[in-house]
Structure formats: structure tokens, C-alpha cells
Design brief:
The chain is an alpha+beta fold. Helices cover 48% and strands 26% of the residues. Strands 1, 2, 3, 4 and 5 form a five-stranded mixed beta sheet that branches. α2 packs antiparallel against α3. It is elongated and about 80 Å long.
Length: 180
């Protein structure tokens, strides 16, 4: 009985030792992989820094130039904003929209380039809104809509055979202020 107990204990201790060795080898393997990954990340970071400084110091590397017609060009930001405002208010009037309010929009934080924009609230026939949006889409310099809310006006404000809507929109474009 003692011999059997001794054999069982001996076998269990060998099994635990083997399990411990296996876990140890896996831990060493994990540490080596982690060190290799950290070294790879450091190498990539150093290459990015080296290339960034090289690009910044090379006079032959020019920033990308946007296509003509994409940027609102003016002598200063105020002039560019005024151009956008004149166009937007004129387009709304051409399409039978009543302007309730408008205001400048600050630089859009999710766009890296300088922007200009207007927050508009207006109402009028749905067909006029569609025509305004079509004109906006075709306009050069380019414009975009970052938000658009359209709601029908109450029944008492509807016109015969026309769907009257209230619209809130934010329109914006790229500003080339200082390049005029």
C-alpha cells in the first residue's frame, strides 16, 4: 500500500513538474513575442519621426493642391464667409424659401483643412428645397451639407398642392482665405 501511495505521489509530482515546465516555456515564449512587438513598434515610430522631419525639411515636397473649384478663394476669411452667405441667401430666395435665420459656423473640428459654413433655418415648398439642394450640389466652389433636418409645416400653413416644409441645415465648404 505504501509503495502504491509512493508511486501515485511520484507520478503526480512529475505531472505537476511537467505542467510547470510547460507553463514556464509558454511564459518565456510570450515574453519574447511581447519584446519583439515592442521593438517593432519602436522601430516604426522612429521611422515615422525620421520621415516626418525629412518631409518637413525638403523644399521639393509641396503640400497637395486641391482641384480648382473645391475651395472658396478670398483675400481673408471674412470675405470668403460673405461670399458663401450671399450665395446661400440668394439661392434660397431663387427657390421660394423664406429664410428664418442664419449664422456662421465655426471651423469644423473633424475636417483638417480650413472650413467656412452657415447654419440655416428656412421654410418653403418641398420642391424648392430639392431645387436648392441640387444647386448646392452642382455649385463651384464645392459645398457640402453636414446636417439636414426637414419637417412638414402644420396643416394650417400648407399651400394648395404644395408640401410646405421647415428645414434646418448646416452647409460648409473648404476655405482658401488668404489665397485670393
Amino acid at each position: 500500500m505504501t509503495r502504491h501511495l509512493f508511486s501515485t505521489v511520484w507520478f503526480c509530482s512529475l505531472a505537476f513538474a511537467g505542467l510547470g515546465l510547460q507553463l514556464g516555456f509558454q511564459l518565456i515564449s510570450y515574453r519574447n513575442a511581447n519584446n519583439q512587438t515592442s521593438e517593432l513598434i519602436r522601430n516604426v515610430e522612429s521611422q515615422v519621426v525620421r520621415l516626418s522631419s525629412r518631409i518637413a525639411s525638403d523644399p521639393n515636397i509641396k503640400p497637395p493642391v486641391l482641384q480648382a473649384g473645391l475651395v472658396w478663394v478670398a483675400d481673408d476669411a471674412s470675405s470668403a464667409e460673405q461670399q458663401l452667405q450671399v450665395w446661400a441667401l440668394g439661392a434660397l430666395q431663387r427657390h421660394d424659401q423664406s429664410i428664418r435665420q442664419y449664422q456662421q459656423v465655426p471651423q469644423l473640428d473633424y475636417i483638417d483643412a480650413p472650413t467656412l459654413g452657415l447654419r440655416l433655418e428656412f421654410s418653403g415648398p418641398l420642391e424648392g428645397l430639392v431645387a436648392f439642394l441640387a444647386e448646392l450640389e452642382a455649385h463651384r466652389p464645392a459645398l457640402a451639407v453636414s446636417s439636414l433636418q426637414v419637417r412638414p409645416l402644420p396643416p394650417r400653413l400648407q399651400r394648395d398642392e404644395l408640401t410646405m416644409v421647415n428645414t434646418q441645415a448646416v452647409i460648409w465648404g473648404l476655405s482658401g482665405a488668404g489665397n485670393g
